[in-house]
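Handout, tutorial session.
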Amino acid sequence: MGGEILDRQKSVEFLLSKGVLISPSVVEKINSGLISQLKPLLEKGESFVLDEAFLQGLSQAFNVEILRSYNEPSSNRDVEDFVAFFNSRFKQLSNLLIHRPEMSNKVSISRLVNKSDREAVSIIGLVSNIAFTKNNNIKLTLEDPTGSIGVIVTKRDTQLFRAASSLTLDEVIGVSGTNGKNILFASSITWPGIPLIDLKKSPLQESAIVLSDLHVGSKNFLEKEFKKFLSWINGRLGSEAQVKLANKVKYIFIVGDLVDGVGIYPGQYNELEIKDIYKQYEMCAELLSQIPQDKAIIICPGNHDALRLAEPQPPLSIELASPLYKLPNVIMVSNPARVNIGRTGGFEGFDVLLYHGYSFDYYVANIESIRNSGGYNNPELILKYLLQRRHLAPSHGSTLYVPTNIDPLVIEKIPDMFFTGHIHKSALFNHRNITLVSGSCWQSKTSFQEKVGHEPEPCRVPIIDLHTRKMRLLNFGG
């Protein structure tokens, strides 16, 4: 929350320095994402009043509203900050679990410790340890703010045992069972989960596409294929039906790794075509400038982009990526971020969750059910796993993070669409009426990917028809 306030203060000060008059009613809506939308007006030196009417007109131009974008300040953290962070995260996830019917007889862990009377109880706790007993049962240690307790999941209950085998450290779960002395014998495990939501359909004939992992600047950047995409989006390539498809595209999401960066992995410098980070963003902006300006380009960063690795990552730096900020149809947000698109008349639009996906590597490597079912080749499993836990990186070791007052990686509000990248594999799925999209890439296999056995699937463009919610994939590769 503190980062959002700082972002707002900086943005307000910047606008005032440019001579913009700001209505008090819109101050809460001002952030760095809005600044990127106003950039063309500011560069022209035009004076205007930023009020509700102006914002409504700006929103109508692209029908994009930034619901949540983070710009956390860089500062030193101490142990108390991490304790407060995990307490806050526990509370956020507990609030999602507490109303589940399985938690109707929920008690705090402290009430179970040393309690010998056997009774059916439920607890909510953070998984602080996962081990096996000498009989090969699973023994969990669960913590809440009042204490910790052991939980036994017996191998005789094969379905529950299989579910418990997919647990990861630090996730927050509900457990029902029978208590013993300083132990709970589990009969069920409850995750925050995702209910079935309404499948929204726009009244407008519009589409959205998802790009990710351009890696501009790499010798492996597939420039010829990306220019084929640019020809298509401009209506100059494809059959009559494919040209009509391009004309319907209103929103273009780029979910991280616009450039290859510098010094990201060992030996990368020798694989760079452009070795200057500023010039990488210049080339990226030159390519994206060829996208028609009536199409909104919503950009969040990734781990190859030039900013901190710790999540949430703020929007791309104006100093480093200034050529992108000059494009009038570019809207910058953080990683992760939530935006609304397509709101019009009586239609509330679609809430879209964006996350580049840096944590995905951890779950492919450490969750046996994901690894044995295709791993990187089956992105759907990763996205479903995280949605079930309502967190983008539930395990402490799965990503670098900045402790904040409220954990921004918790999925508190269920999105209509969830767009990701990072793993260089394209996939489109519907899960409980949520559109899940894993973006492709525009980079051929690197030496690093060859070493780790990663097979990229480049040059695919997922398309979502917002009117019908049908999905398809275009391939611009050879």
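The second record follows below. Compare its token runs with those of the first.
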Amino acid sequence: MSEQINQHAATADFEFDALRQAANYRRALIAESAPYLGGKVIEIGAGIGQMTELLEKIPAVTMLQSVEPDARFSSQFKANRPESPLIRGTIADVPGTDWNGLVSINVLEHIEHDQAELAAYARMLGEKQGLLVLFVPARPELYGLIDKDFGHFRRYTKAELRKKLTQAGFTVEHMRYYNIVGYFAWWLNFCLLKQRNFNQASVRLFDRLIFPVVHALETHICPPPFGQSLLVVARAGRSRLS
């Protein structure tokens, strides 16, 4: 067990390093999430705070409560962002049920009992029919050794995720695949070639030259028929649009 934990910690380190290189990717994801976030918002699985700094800049967000269960990551978070509220724990440790929004970016796949986790999110948001912004790895055929190293239990299909959200008490308002070029890059590197870490230079090149074009096409021209990830917006309880 300790070897597994150490392996997950090591892979998380180079995942954080890769995310640090992907500045355009981080900004685009938060910019796409921003219209759905306002008031009191929970950030689940804050890691070392790489997304936190962008979430805190969303004008409509009046309070951001970050949550991170890992002790080492929590320590790094506090060192990086000493003024940002952080709970070391899980959704069960967050007080109140009057939250307006909840953000979960690349977290749900790490949780074995994801249905129960989604139900907990719905309870936290139910009082105000708040919005969940959820970002997860997509397409089970892409599951590779690196997913296992990261501690991923699964990659999601649209149908699976919609069903689990509905059963948890959410109404899905928006769902789309994200990053079609990343789908092929992931398949090549981590499924076919079975690599088990990121190439920092490749991540930086993709983020600066390829991703901005791909994202613009996906956002403004045509949503992709499949992709590396899924971006979902779901409302706790009955949708106000229905």
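Points raised in discussion: Residues 1-10 have pLDDT under 50 and may be disordered.
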